[in-house]
Amino acid sequence: MTLSESELERYSRQLVLPEWSGEAQERLKSATAIVVGAGALGSPAATYLAAAGVGHLGIVDEDAVELSNLHRQPLHFTPDVGRQKAENAALKLGVLNPEVQVDPYPVRIAEQNAPAIVMGADVVVDCSDSFATRYVVNDACCAQRVPLVEAGVLGFDGLVLSIQPGESACYRCAFPAEPPAGSVPSCREAGVMGATAGIVGSIQALEAIKLITGVGEPLVDRILQLDARGMEQTIVSTSRREGCPACGRLTAAPQSA
Amino acid sequence: MTRTAIDLTGVACPMNWVRTKLALERLAPGDELAVRLDPGEPIESVPRSARDDGHAVAVEGHVVTIIKR
How many CB pairs under 8 A join A and B? Predict the structure, then answer.
């Protein structure tokens, strides 16, 4: 896979990086990333993945754009209120970078369709907003050994964990049980500072790029916790949990990536 | 060991380094790449980038010769 003249120019400011290479850029171009959720995390994550040149992007979201989304979901503009988020995101990303193919999936991801949605992906970026969905995405990715970037954001707080199924802690290893209903305020109750989601979603894009290309060191077995009030970042170690129902049966590195 | 020459006159920074770098990626360690560059920023900047990446570099006039590490 070779890069066109316009691609060389478009990606020149990352191609010059000592950590980056034409080979890394070509890996991105031939990669497929699935972004689950085109909201607060999905907007920045999908934007940077498309801009960086990930060749195939799938955007999964069943919701329509609401006025109250706009403060934290910068892929959606005021005239987009009422439009399908997945369709609107695909439209915007296609304008941002016509070199990449963006497919909208205007569906709710659930146990039944998750395996088909993540199948064949090089990375899944979970930008959903519920614990239940995160477990569904985690389990589907573990079953198919698809690398995954998990994240959550609430108020001024965020966290990110990258997962290489079978090699590093999965979301269930790190968070074995869903918190009891009512113990964690939902997004609507607690609110989200839009820029906090911007930071966390951008970190997710960077993690996905690292997982695709092998450049840098992704946050595997390490949970990044961000408290944006004081802009404090903490990294907490985690590890695979024996008997994990999602990844416990997977053995490490059965084949080279 | 091979010797390749590319002419990047008229190509501004940083695209000249992008093209040099991609040309180097296609070579094997020890291979030589001769790059003709414009005077001024290009001939000052490209050799520096190549050195920073660990390659052996020699500049003669407007041509920089890079031996891939």
Answer: 26
pLDDT in tens, A182-215: 777 766 667 999 999 999 999 999 999 999 999 9
Per-position b or e across A142-175, b if 16+ CB within 10 A of its CB: bbebbbbbbbbbbebbbbbbbbbbbbbbbbbbbb
Verify whether the Cβ–Cβ distance B21 to A16 is below 8 Å: yes
Residue contact B22–A22, C-beta within 8 A: yes
All domains in chain A, ordered by first residue: 17-175+187-237 (3.40.50.720)
Cβ of residue A23 closer than 8 Å to a chain B Cβ: yes
**What is the CATH topology of the domain spanning B3-67?**
Translation Initiation Factor IF3 (3.30.110)
Q: What is the pTM of this model?
A: 0.94
ipTM of this model? 0.90
Q: Which two three-digit tokens encode residue A2?
A: 């070779």
